[in-house]
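Hello,

I think I submitted the magnesium ion job twice by accident. Can you confirm which output corresponds to this input? Input:
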Amino acid sequence: MSEIKIRHLTKRFEAEGHTLTALDDVNLTIGSGSIYGIIGMSGAGKSTLVRSINYLEKPTEGSVFIDDTDLAELSPKELRKKRANIGMIFQGFNLLEQKNVIDNVTLPLKIAGTSKKEAREKARALLRTVGLEDKERAYPSRLSGGQKQRVAIARALATDPQILLCDEATSALDPQTSKSILDLLKEINTRLGITIVVITHQMSVVTEICDRVAIVENGRIVEEGSVDEIFTSPKTDAARELISGKKDSFSPVDRFDTGNVVRIVFSENSAFEPVIANTILKFNTPINILKADTRNVNGQAKGEMLLGLPEDEDLRIAIMEYIKERGLSVTEVKDHA
Amino acid sequence: MLEQKAIIMLLEGIRDTLYMTLVSTLIGYVIGLPMGIVLNLTRPDGLKPNRIIYRILDFICNIIRSVPFLILLILLIPFTRAVVGQSYGSSATIVPLVICAAPYIARVVEASLNEVDAGVIEAAKAMGASNIQIIFRVLLVEAKTSLMAGATITTGILLGYSAMSGTVGGGGLGDIAVRYGYYRWQTDIMIVTVVLLIVIFQIIQNLGSKITAFFDHRKK
Ligand SMILES: Nc1ncnc2c1ncn2[C@@H]1O[C@H](COP(=O)(O)OP(=O)(O)O)[C@@H](O)[C@H]1O
Ligand SMILES: [Mg+2]
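Support: Only one job matched these inputs. Its output is below.
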């Protein structure tokens, strides 16, 4: 239940004589109680950005505010206290391998100076929340990836944080396990009202649980908005690329290297009318369906199609207009190879 | 067979050897463990990078470790005499053993701590842990078995060095081996001391490995 404001955040790394700008004038407001996605390709600067939120990475320029507290103004001790209020989970889980499950979960409490008895009670309650009450004495090496991430979530929640940062928390997990972890995060958000920041390179993670999303490319936010908005009508190439995903390079789309491909998106309510069939009938021309997919975006079914339209430009424009009039979103797909 | 006098001498040798080895390992760790921790903390990507402190400790470690033990032993005679009051016997041998062991231990400890997964340290920082808390609650805990394995190797090496100090009257089994085997040609006694040294070494190694494995929760 905390608001995060990032203002003009720039982070430069000095490495072997040259400077690398990992973040370039980033501005973001992450609403209290929301699940906020930050998506981008590998190396875009996502981890650097999320590590700036708890000041594990100090900005070169700009500021981070948590509920109007500028983190730059905190003393080292105050900063540590603030961090206890911000949970964090990671792709690699980062559990202590030499400590059993309950000792991992009580660690943040011991660091905060909580009594042993109280810490254990708290940890047990959290292990029930994440469904691992029977694994208290197990060591991490005995747990599956999903179970390890559950322990990490319990550990991150031990100090009753207002914010939970997730850096590629599901990237190392298979799709099913990943889904169950995302469901757990959503449940935690609903039940405790914690603000959750989700870093990922997978659009499916964003559409699954996020309310809003920012797209990071080369250290800059290139697009920001509600997940619905960005999924339906992405404005930047980066967004389009993330939505269609890398898998496209294996699809037959590769062979149609024309500028005639469009992406249409329709939601549940517009799915009644057989738009494609009607278009074919109306214009009396073949339309090639290159790819079709449905996705769950924030609990709403969204259909997505890639269509190969005729060469004739006038006809193409007319078809696009027609589809738009039917309430579907249409974007031209350029160099989708 | 050996006479009773020889047996008593050998038993005393075992006692002195164990005394020198264990006490010098212990004192070596009292000095070397903090040194290793500081090396780990002050290295460029450590918790508290500090070029100057790192360079100084690094230099001390390298210098001492580059002097062969036998030469260090002789070089340190005046210092040993000042500390213990004499320069021969097992108590006196502990002085050069410790001085030789401490930088070695510091290096072994540093290496063990460097191995600790950076992600776990990051997680601890994110929890709001101070550096002291990270050292005691994360670094030393996660490096525990690696530190134990290091201690086992160190003890074995100090056993060998304590025997080597026998050449200059250091006491213990090494001393007996040199006095009887080398100066008096009593090969039987020398062979027995060598066998005893091998047996002690094996016991230390096996015990160390067993204890280390017992405390390792990574792949059980
Ligand atoms: N400590 C560091 N020192 C130097 N360069 C870094 C450091 N951390 C990250 N970088 C660089 O910053 C860029 C962004 O990295 P990162 O935030 O990890 O990206 P992402 O999480 O999106 O994959 C990369 O080019 C990376 O090499
Ligand atoms: Mg990353």
